[in-house]
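ok so I'm stuck.
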Amino acid sequence: MMKMLRPYIFRLEANKAIVSSLFAAINAKDLTVLNEFVAPSFVDHTHHLQGLEDVKQFFAMLIKGFPNFQSTIEDIIPEGDQVWFRITETGKCTGEYRGLTPTGNKIIAKTVHKFRVVNCRFIEDFFVSDELDFYKQIGVIKYTEEGKKLFSTKEFHNLNSTHPVRTG
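replied:
not stuck anymore, here's the structure
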């Protein structure tokens, strides 16, 4: 029975290794690795990216805005042709990002991704992140006085204890 499972287990481990290699290369600012791991037909359903060139442009923009950008894989779970992973992203906004002036603010973002892998290449990504909090951390979105009162309550923080709201 174990002998029959070996190819499946090998594929799962290979898919995990591909995800880890991708983020290691991005952390090193080596975007040439995208050619190796991202399929020309890749689709990112969250950022509405289609194709390898869109992915290259996205990461180039991200690195320009956050030159010290780093991703840390916290959890990684392969299943069939999919790899689910949770990452923590950090960086400091010292360059232009999406047309926004650099603020010098640090960010800590947590995201959950589901990559689909075929023939050792990523063909699809779905992910969830708190984009509103990301833009608040950069400093381009501010709480109103009412929002500060609402989101600084103890009850709110107890509900959201794994992702505290910043009010400053």
